[in-house]
Specification:
Number of helices of chain A: 12
Distance between the termini of chain A: 79 Å
Oligomer: homodimer
Strand content of chain A: 15-25%
Number of strands of chain A: 12
Chain lengths: ~325, ~325
DNA sequence: CTGTTAGCGCTTTCAT
DNA sequence: ATGAAAGCGCTAACAG
């Protein structure tokens, strides 16, 4: 392995001079700078970031933990974070917790031993509090993404789940629907609670009664939608529309409905939170509350780096990004029979 | 920051003893082991992987570079790699080159300075040769994924693009199609060349003439499919079926066709390479050659770690994973008019 | 403008 | 069973 000492020897200078050339620090004569640079090239020198970090006490590595790498919302968010980090000279260490608290813990340990300079964290749920506290104990700057965790204060970038849910449900109501089901994620995740709140709010604003038989809470398990649909449809007064709390739930629901021979949107309307990437949807027909996923990542990195560099104990900032209602064809006016 | 010296002092032992406890190495009395462990807990000690790597000359970090983080093929592959790496005690540093040679170079530099123990590399194309050579120069074990690069020998995990393409095209032929267009990726990527070869092979096996007006080479730019469709359809003897070399191209093509009021599959059949994840496709109707993406990642890691640990200069291994033909409804029998 | 010294946190080697 | 010394590759602080 080529070190600065190898370079130094060959260039007849001290290691320190080589170090200065590498970092463009201090004053160095143009002549030696060029000589050293040339030798570094010749010898294929690559700085050792381990050694550097050890003395500098900073790694220039940020970590991004997401909960589902197969979800377009998170991959788009990841691209936003990556671009923003790179642009500012930071590397990004990805992690995928898979909505799994145990995996999340492993990633937290990894962040700690890797001595990352900061963390962008999409928690699996309220139980992530413990993990966040560990990071806080070690003074690692931290930005929460997409989901908040009760009892934990920090910078965050969130969507407006309540408003988005309300808009979606009001859209259904404006189409004449009165029996609207909510296919929700687990309530230990803040976004699920907020979407439920928005759902209730929309009902109330329109003088519709809240019926808890229309609300189903699903964890992110495959095929759970199928059972949920069954029970929903067997009710005496079944829903005419479904509000799915995220894109995957909507897809699961629609597939389940179609498998039963029920047409969407002709027989049942469906709307959901989160869009799919442009390149993924064959037939963009879902009416959605689309979130600016790329911005989530980019702004998260910005907050994080500001926190790292200012070292300031300034007040925590909470950025709330509004969703955009995109009306397509998966929800239609209720047929008056 | 808590170091082994802090622990040592508090436990009235030497740093060396603490180190031994951490690594379960050497013999230590049960009494001191327990005492030291307890103090480590109390003080929230976390080993510093930088310092450790610096002396050990290994990081236990592997790097995975993919070309498109929004493509389900690669995210699924990433999950396979991640699971396999974690299971064997390695961490995975993700990178997303975005089919961009410049970004790829930045990631290579990063791998070098981060001193990763090995690299899983999906190259952007043949021009990646230079980057691979750099890694080779620095003796970094390397496994190529999905795409090979002429002139570069190493372990690889590939799909059988030629066979998959042949099957897809023969399927179309069996449905009565004779004018079959190929919507291909750029030819500086090995998979595109192999898919072209498979396409030609299928034609030849069925005594159909190869017509280069039916073959379009697209780079991965948005909306390129639209223009390609235009020119394809304006021909005197336009295609009745399209073989798209990957999932995104197929989607682009279908959207373009539908925008022109052309129905798939009624008027034009479409098949493609690579499936979508289960959770992403609303309406799994595309007939595809599906690749075992998860296996690509898992096997890649396996090859890589074996190479790292054996240090052996054994022969390079090339694993070729066959695709699976999944017949759905996007391709139908040609209407005899 | 350049060099010397010391030390970042850890483990290897050699003592005891 | 435990410890002391040296060194991994690098840079901050000070000296010249």
């Amino acid at each position: 392995m080529v070190t600065i000492y190898d370079i130094a020897k060959k260039a007849n200078v001290s290691a320190m001079t080589v170090s200065r050339v590498i970092n463009n620090s201090g004053r160095i004569s143009e002549k030696t700078r060029i000589k050293v640079k040339k030798i570094m090239e010749e010898m294929n020198y690559v700085p050792n970031s381990m050694a550097r970090s050890l003395v500098l006490q900073e790694t220039k590595i940020l970590s991004l933990l997401i909960t589902d790498i197969t979800n377009p919302f998170f991959t788009t968010l990841a691209r936003g974070a990556e671009d923003a980090a790179m642009r500012r000279g930071y590397k990004l260490l990805f992690g995928n917790s898979d909505e799994n608290l145990q995996k999340e813990k492993e990633y937290v340990d990894m962040m700690l031993t890797a001595r990352v300079d900061g963390v962008l964290f999409a928690p699996t749920g309220d139980a992530s509090l413990e993990h966040l506290s560990i990071l806080r104990t070690h003074n690692i700057p931290l930005v929460l993404l997409d989901r908040e965790v009760p009892g934990f204060e920090t910078d965050m970038v969130l969507g407006d789940s309540r408003a988005g849910a309300r808009q979606l449900v009001e859209h259904l109501i404006s189409l004449g629907h009165k029996r609207i089901a909510l296919l929700n994620g687990p309530l230990h995740v803040s976004t699920a609670r907020h979407r439920l709140a928005g759902y209730k709010e929309a009902l109330k604003l329109n003088d519709l009664a809240y019926d808890d038989r229309l609300v189903v809470e699903l964890d992110y398990k495959p095929a759970a939608e199928n059972l949920a649909m069954d029970s929903l449809l067997q009710q005496t007064d079944p829903p005419t529309a479904i509000f799915a709390a995220n894109n995957f739930l909507a897809i699961g629901a629609i597939r389940s409905l179609r498998a039963k021979g029920i047409s969407v949107p002709k027989q049942i309307s469906v709307v959901c939170f989160d869009d799919f990437g442009e390149s993924l949807s064959l037939d963009p027909f879902l009416t959605v509350a689309s979130q600016p996923a790329y911005q989530f990542g980019a702004l998260g990195i910005q907050l994080l780096i500001e926190r790292i560099q200012d070292k300031s104990e300034g007040d925590y900032r909470k950025i709330v990004l509004p969703p955009e209602l995109i009306i397509r064809s998966s929800a239609q006016a209720l047929n008056i029979m």
